[in-house]
Amino acid sequence: MFKRIIDSLFLGFLVMVSITGCSTQSADLVVINARIWTGNPRAPEAEAIAVVRDRLIVVGSNKDAAQRVGPQTRLIDAQGRRVIPGLIDCHIHIVGGGLTLDRLNLRDTASKEDFIARITKAAGEHSLGEWVLGGRWSAESWTSVEQPQKEWIDPGTGDVPVFLQRMDGHQALANSAALKLAGIDANGPADPPGGEIERDLITHEPTGILKDDAMALVDRHIPPVSDDRRDAALLKAMRHANSRGLTGVHDMSGLEDLACFERVCATGKASLRIRSFIMVSDWQPQFETAERFKNDEWVTVAGFKGYMDGSLGSRTACMFDPYDDVAADETNPTGLLSAQATPPSRIQDDIVQADMQGYQIVVHAIGDRANSLLLDGYAMAVDANPKRDRRHRVEHAQHLRAGDINRFASQGIIASMQPLHKADDARYAEKAIGFSRCRTSYAYRELLDAGAVVCFGSDWPVVSLNPMRGLAAAVTALTMDGDVWMPHQSISVEDALRSYTSRAAYAGYAETEMGTLEVGKLADLVILDADLLTVEPQKLEDIRPKTTIVGGKVVWEAGD
Q1: Residue 20: which H helix or E strand, with range?
Q2: 64-108 pLDDT tens trace
Q3: Same domain, 52 and 123
Q4: 246-253 and 82-85 beta bridge pairing
Q5: What is the structure's pLDDT at 295?
Q6: What's the CA gap between 163 and 153, in Å, rounded?
Q7: 305 and 252 in contact (C-beta within 8 Å)?
Q8: Are residues 109 and 214 in the same domain?
Q9: Which helix (H) or strand (E) holds 5?
Q10: pLDDT one-digit tens code per residue, 333-347
Q11: For residues 547 and 34, what is the distance between their CA atoms, to the nearest angstrom?
Q12: Is 463 buried (19+), middle (13-18) or exposed (0-12) by CB count in 10 A?
């Protein structure tokens, strides 16, 4: 304590000298008395930074930074706290997440009865014709696991249409009012490519559960969100992300989101850097749209997002072998390929064409067959097109055959993963695909050991966007039930941190601009309330930002 007082007095003296007589350029922001993890292997630790406009001009000692303090400098005393580069979420749905903050959230429902009661209450608060939207339910969270059906909620919702997505976004529950609007009944329609209308095996009546591409049959009847509400949702989501230490995201964006990004950025209120991947089933007509958004300060459209398959929880992830808990005579015992990947040559041809135009391609693949087919598609692009720095990605890369793990490194494919999914899925993964296939699932450790680049994200609003929870899941292997599951895939805190910083920046072609704290890079950083490098691993998820800084500007402070 005495030493800190002496150091502060000396630093105060340096600041006074710099204000009255320093000839060097004054900084706009200076942070002193910090324990800075720079992420730069050549100079991993520092105690102060100085910023001019949006760039770091000092990453070094208190003395060096103090010499940059001028009359207009904002000075922050970190008081010995840990400072890290700004965190980047590599897979998020930012506008959709913002909208869910004001919708019905069933993520923490405790039982079937609680589930029904909350939906009934929400329907009672909606006027006729207004939809009850939201969801994020997961029956696996309940003591007695039962998959919901429309008969549960019809009595309490009546003519109010209800459409509630499962936690993973690959399955939804619709009530009879919503099914009627979509024309779904015992007589049809047939399952669309890449989707399934779950039906009673005897009566053929829809149960209310729609999987993957079948969800669009109802979704298209939901009234569009107004521009004002969409813009407000984006601003609310940005602030929510900043409060968790996020300074940048890689967003999986609908076309309607691009106009929203433009409007919000034009107001000067943007506080989160967005690298956007357009989610459309037909990429080529959108090449011109993507060109309009290149190299903007806040928003860059980098390429396109596609889908190979569904999810493990919905049993629609495409596997080589049947699910252990799905009867062989059921409709899709090995899961589903998406409509975009039916047949696989369709999306593989799209990959070749988009790669030829120079776009970065990110494709959702969860099942082991889906991942293998996608890696094949990326190999086709390399064979067909000229050599370049591609950095194509597999989004999720959850369930892999051992032989395909090395292909990520050898083909230069980035594994974009969400560690909190492991904590969630662990409750039922072995029931679904057995112990052997789970051994090479969520294979962060094996992918890194093979030399692949692994970046991390959340898939919010599927799960929390809090990167500290994701980081903790990757390090501890703790499930949401508090068990330890497949710890052989766990990684160190620094490895996990790099997957949210320097590797995340690399996955967005931005390693010269962000991801580490170095002179000349963007001043995106976070001051934490505890040291994630020394705290007990079980307490990692409790760490919170004190201050989040983007481009040298404080965008969030604890207590805001």
Answers
A1: helix 2-21
A2: 999 999 999 999 999 999 999 999 999 999 999 999 998 999 988
A3: no
A4: unpaired
A5: 57
A6: 11
A7: yes
A8: yes
A9: helix 2-21
A10: 999 999 999 999 999
A11: 12
A12: buried
